[in-house]
């Protein structure tokens, strides 16, 4: 990864823009082969803030840093004034980065709500199973909320949060960041404009990438669905949400199939050991070797709290691999997440959609095909092509994205900071309509996920009832 930091100043400089104080979106579009500009314009509904929105971050892990770092680049828009994080080193580093005073640093989210309200909003980036408690507490105290997806692992808890958000009239933005990625914004615009006629069906594919699957859903925080959330909710509520959002219609029925086929003890190679550091005979040729992924390639090491002195980081990584799940053999974990998953969905207006989530791919991102009565669209998040049956012509659109540091090429397509920008405006103006991913708009995808899991377990087609 390049060490060059794409700050607000650097983006403006790269584009030759020197207008002081003007917000320019973090992600940009390039031009297609005809020279048509595809940079998304500034949202005219956005206003200059009289003061930055103040926020408390609950959970200073990877996602908490992605959202919080927006305030470092745009301090006139977002000021992080508090943090709750039980891991001391993360707490200290986050507080130092955002200049948070000691009396606004807390060990747990519960400690935050023992204090009188001291900010406009909270950013909830705690583990999935710890979303409900802080969200309900924040709503009761009058905070607006940026809530990492999923809303909650429980359907009833999702509905409880929705009900309380309505009762308190607070803003709850759910981090369905793909809705803010320029690629999907443009794709949806074309679909909704009638560019390919009436939409008949859609195919959407999420290739997780094999080492990402091993990292997050075999060894990582989401390896056990009963302790966290099923992978369809933890990983792919993004995708069911984006399908529904692009189609612009309601879902009616869903059917799902999937299982854990590969990452289990019966597939462990002969000579493999409990840990990759235990002298495993096949470590050198194993695609899931922790030594290769974390130590030799230094990939995905953001999950480790490494020393700032780079000369000491190698030994620290080896220590993590000897003592944490990240060093365990992928065939000997207590994981249960599906490594392949298929859903069939019926929407209103007789529109059908299929969604496939697959672990065993060499790359991540998303792939989408849209079939219309007058044309066809196919894309992969880097570009998409539109075929017009009426003219027998096609047109290619290319996207260029400057991703947030630590999330480069992670597939959100620049949506992370666009979401934060809209959320800040919504909180400042107290206008939830500035968001496309309010809890009201986002909850249907969660219901779809819960029904998909029920379908998978019970071999039934499930009705989706809101």
Topology:
Elements: H1 8-15, E1 28-29, E2 53-58, H2 62-73, E3 78-84, H3 88-98, E4 105-106, H4 109-112, E5 121-124, H5 132-141, E6 144-147, H6 155-168, E7 172-174, H7 182-193, E8 199-207, H8 210-219, H9 231-234, H10 237-247, E9 251-259, H11 290-296, H12 313-323, E10 340-347, E11 352-358, E12 367-372, E13 375-379, E14 383-388, E15 393-400, H13 415-429, H14 439-458, E16 462-463
Parallel strand pairs: 2-3, 2-5, 3-4, 5-6, 6-7, 8-11
Antiparallel strand pairs: 1-15, 8-12, 9-10, 9-16, 10-11, 12-13, 13-14, 14-15
Helix pairs in contact: 5-6, 6-14, 7-10, 10-14, 11-12
Quick recap of the structure?
By secondary structure, this protein is α/β, with parallel strands linked by helices. It is 32% helix and 19% strand. The strands form two sheets. It has a ten-stranded mixed beta sheet with strand order 1-15-14-13-12-8-11-10-9-16. Strands 4-3-2-5-6-7 form a six-stranded parallel beta sheet, with helices on both faces.
Overall description:
By secondary structure, the protein is α/β, with parallel strands linked by helices. The protein is 32% helix and 19% strand. The chain contains 14 helices and 16 strands. It has helices spanning 8-15, 62-73, 88-98, 109-112, 132-141, 155-168, 182-193, 210-219, 231-234, 237-247, 290-296, 313-323, 415-429, 439-458, and strands at residues 28-29, 53-58, 78-84, 105-106, 121-124, 144-147, 172-174, 199-207, 251-259, 340-347, 352-358, 367-372, 375-379, 383-388, 393-400, 462-463. The strands form two sheets. A ten-stranded mixed β-sheet has the order 1-15-14-13-12-8-11-10-9-16. A six-stranded parallel β-sheet has the order 4-3-2-5-6-7, with helices on both faces. Strand 3 (78-84), helix 3 (88-98) and strand 4 form a beta-alpha-beta unit. The longest helix is centred in the C-terminal third of the chain and has 20 residues, at 439-458. It is globular and about 60 Å long. Residues 1-41 and 401-411 have low confidence and may be disordered.
């Amino acid at each position: 990864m390049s060490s060059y930091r794409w700050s607000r100043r650097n983006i403006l400089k790269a584009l030759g823009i020197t207008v002081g104080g003007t917000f320019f979106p973090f992600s940009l579009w390039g031009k297609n082969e005809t020279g048509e500009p595809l940079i998304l314009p500034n949202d005219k509904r956005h206003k200059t803030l009289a003061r930055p929105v103040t926020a408390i971050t609950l959970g200073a892990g990877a996602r908490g840093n992605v959202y919080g770092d927006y305030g470092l680049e745009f301090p006139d828009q977002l000021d992080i004034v508090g943090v709750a994080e039980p891991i001391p080193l993360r707490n200290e580093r986050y507080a130092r980065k955002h200049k948070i005073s000691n009396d606004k640093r807390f060990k747990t989210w519960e400690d935050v709500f023992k204090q009188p309200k001291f900010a406009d909003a909270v950013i909830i980036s705690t583990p999935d199973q710890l979303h409900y408690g802080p969200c309900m507490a924040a709503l009761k105290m009058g905070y607006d909320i940026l809530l990492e997806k999923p809303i909650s692992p429980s359907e009833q808890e999702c509905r409880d949060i929705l009900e309380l958000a309505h009762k308190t009239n607070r803003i709850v933005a759910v981090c369905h960041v793909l809705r803010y990625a320029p690629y999907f914004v443009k794709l949806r615009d074309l679909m909704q404009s009638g560019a390919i006629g009436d939409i008949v069906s859609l195919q959407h594919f999420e290739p997780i990438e094999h080492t990402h699957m091993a990292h997050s859903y075999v060894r990582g925080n989401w390896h056990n669905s009963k302790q966290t959330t099923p992978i369809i909710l933890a990983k792919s509520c993004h995708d069911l949400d984006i399908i529904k959002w692009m189609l612009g219609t309601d879902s009616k029925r869903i059917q799902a199939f999937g299982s854990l086929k590969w990452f289990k003890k019966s597939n462990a190679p002969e000579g493999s050991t409990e840990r990759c550091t235990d002298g495993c005979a096949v470590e050198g040729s194993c695609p899931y070797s922790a030594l290769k992924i974390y130590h030799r390639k230094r990939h995905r090491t953001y999950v480790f709290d490494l020393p700032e002195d780079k000369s000491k980081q190698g030994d620290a990584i080896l220590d993590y691999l000897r003592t944490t799940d990240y060093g365990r053999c992928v065939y000997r974990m207590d994981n249960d997440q599906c490594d392949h998953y298929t859903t069939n969905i019926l929407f209103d207006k007789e529109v059908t959609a299929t969604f496939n989530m697959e672990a065993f791919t060499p790359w991540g991102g998303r792939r989408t095909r849209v079939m219309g009565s007058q044309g066809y669209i196919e894309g992969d998040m880097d570009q998409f092509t539109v075929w017009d049956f009426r003219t027998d012509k096609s047109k290619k659109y290319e996207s260029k994205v400057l991703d947030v540091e630590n999330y480069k090429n992670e597939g959100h397509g620049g949506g992370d900071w666009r979401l934060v920008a809209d959320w800040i405006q919504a909180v400042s103006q107290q206008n939830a309509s500035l968001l496309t991913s309010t809890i009201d708009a986002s909850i249907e995808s969660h219901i779809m996920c819960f029904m998909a899991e029920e379908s998978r377990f019970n071999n039934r087609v499930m009705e989706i009832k809101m």
